[in-house]
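I hope you will forgive my troubling you with a question about protein structure. The matter concerns a single protein, recorded as an amino acid sequence and a row of C-alpha cells. Please examine both parts with care and let me know of anything in them that strikes you as inconsistent. Here, with my thanks, is the record as I have it:
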Amino acid sequence: MSSPCRDSGTQVPEFISLIRWVRDELYPDLITMLDEIRLLLTGSAGPNGPQLLGESPIKAVQYMAQTTTEELMIPAFTNAFAIDSLTLEDGASIEIRDGGVFKVL
C-alpha cells in the first residue's frame, strides 16, 4: 500500500492525498465514499445538512419528512431512523449497507 501523503512521487496537499488514498484503497465506489464523508461532516447525507429548528447555537428540535420519493442509502456502520412512520412513494427505496441500521421509532 502506498503512502497517503504522496501522489506519483510528488508531494501534494495532505488532505487531497489522503482523500485519494481512501478512495483508491478503501472505497472503490466513489459515490458511497462521498456520501459517507458528507454524513460524517454534516450529520446528514443530504446537501443541506441536518434540518434543525431554532436560532440558538444548540438546536432543540430536528424535523424530517413523513414521505419520500427518493432512493435513500444508509451507509455501512451508520445508525438511521424515522419517527412514527415513513411512507415510500412510487420509486422510493431505502438501501441499508452491511453494518448499517435503520429503525422506525
In short: The first helix runs from residue 14 to 26. Helices lie at 14-26, 30-42. The chain is about 25% helix and 25% strand.
